[in-house]
Amino acid sequence: MLSVAVLVAHPRETESALKCANVVTVPSEDAACCGITKNRCRARRVTIGTMSKVEQLEQQIEALSPAEFAELRDWLLERDWNEWDQQIERDASAGKLDRLFEDARAAHRQGKSTKF
Q: Are the CB atoms for 23 and 15 separated by under 8 Å?
């Protein structure tokens, strides 16, 4: 794990700031001795502590080439679609969708459906 104190002039500048001098990185236990506190800092965003896995992944993703990013995006979308399909199957098996099916059948019997 990486302990950091990150000072960024504006929350939207995090990506570019990581690549320039607007970022100060020190171990979290040394942050107080460097005068980095939320009350005294002029920056709008101060993070002191341990980077989460997601924050570490975000930095790694920012460093990907366009082709690598496209490959990662495709993998994430496929995984998300598979999880969605599994959730629908679990909900259907548990009877959570029965009411929707009954409502749709009733609407069809009343002539409220449209043939595609």
A: no
pLDDT of residue 48: 57
Q: Give residue limits of the domains in the chain.
A: 3-62, 66-109
DSSP assignment, residue 2? -
In the chain (116 residues long), the average pLDDT of successive 10-residue segments reads: 46 50 45 47 54 91 96 97 96 94 94 88
Structure tokens at 44: 């709008």
What is the maximal distance between C-alpha atoms in the chain? 74
Output the six-digit token pair for 48.
Answer: 């002191």
Residues forming a β-bridge with 46: 7
Q: Evaluate if pTM is beyond 0.85.
A: no
CA dist 107 → 21, 28, 103, 104 (Å) = 63, 62, 6, 5
> CA–CA separation, 41 vs 69, rounded Å?
35
